[in-house]
Design a protein that fits this description.
This protein has no helices and 17 strands. By secondary structure, it is mostly beta strands. It has one domain: Jelly Rolls (Sandwich). Strands 2, 3, 4, 6, 7, 10 and 17 form a 7-stranded antiparallel sheet that branches. A 6-stranded antiparallel sheet has the order 9-1-11-12-13-14, with no helix packed on it. Strand 3 and strand 4 form a beta hairpin. It starts with a strand and ends with a strand. The structure holds 2-acetamido-2-deoxy-beta-D-glucopyranose (3 copies). The site of one 2-acetamido-2-deoxy-beta-D-glucopyranose has 3 residues, from loops.
Length: 205
């Protein structure tokens, strides 16, 4: 999936706020952020820490990108060159605030990558992770979970409000309309990603 050392980060695009809790854990390391003021986190592009401990990835301007990375690489393989890869789980609270009602671009992605340098990546539908040259290239070694609020036919997006699991590019390996499972009713309900409300993403792999 990726090299011995991987950078784990909470990137991108559009308007992203991560309030109180963001955490990541694998057998070989874990971290939590309870707010982002006075924390050691690597930011680039439009990303900034706002008063009130919030991390804002982009600021509503068109065609910009921003990244926030955990500052140190994490180990995913049990031994150098080993084939056994650790499981991991990640959880973060986010909000996507459209600049105009019902018009959001383009979404955010949780990314595990062998580098923190995404200077060549494009904003907008590339989510600040890929560009038109490297999209889909297995040598990217990039795993991502996209929270995508625009349907891009070139990436075979299923709709304009979905969660996708991506390997090396923007065409999802698996995707599903955004939703949540309600423990009390046992039902899955739809969820609008770009509602502006705080939401929690919880994943385990
Ligand atoms: C932040 O974390 C990095 C990676 O672990 C480390 O090299 C650096 O010294 C830390 N910076 C501060 C200010 O603690
Ligand atoms: C891991 O693989 C690289 C590239 O094939 C090789 O240079 C290195 O010696 C290997 N390391 C170990 C510990 O086997
Ligand atoms: C939930 O979303 C799916 C897929 O977009 C749609 O087919 C379904 O009608 C929606 N359900 C409700 C209750 O809105």
């Amino acid at each position: 999936m990726c090299g011995v050392n991987c950078w784990c980060f909470l990137p991108f695009l559009l308007f992203l706020i991560i309030p109180n809790l963001s955490s990541f854990a694998s057998g070989y390391g874990q971290f939590s952020y309870y707010g982002f003021d006075n924390t050691n986190i690597s930011l680039d592009g439009a990303a900034e820490i706002l008063p009130g401990r919030l991390l804002q990835l982009t600021n509503g301007e068109a065609n910009i990108k921003g990244h926030a990375f955990y500052p140190a690489p994490l180990h995913f393989r049990k031994s150098p060159n080993g084939t056994v890869v650790e499981y991991f789980s990640a959880s973060f609270v986010f909000g996507i605030i459209p600049t105009q009602p019902a018009l959001s671009s383009e979404g955010i992605a949780f990314v595990i990558a062998p580098t923190k340098d995404f200077s060549d990546a494009l904003p907008a539908q590339y989510l600040g992770v890929f560009n038109n040259q490297n999209n889909g290239n297995p040598s990217n070694h990039i795993f991502s979970v996209e929270l995508d609020t625009v349907q891009n036919p070139e990436f075979q997006d299923i709709d304009a409000n979905h969660v996708g699991i991506n390997l090396h590019g923007l065409r999802s390996w698996q995707s599903s309309p955004a939703g949540f499972y309600d423990d009390s009713t046992g039902q899955t309900s739809n969820l609008s990603l770009a509602s502006g409300n705080a939401m929690q993403d919880l994943g385990r792999l």
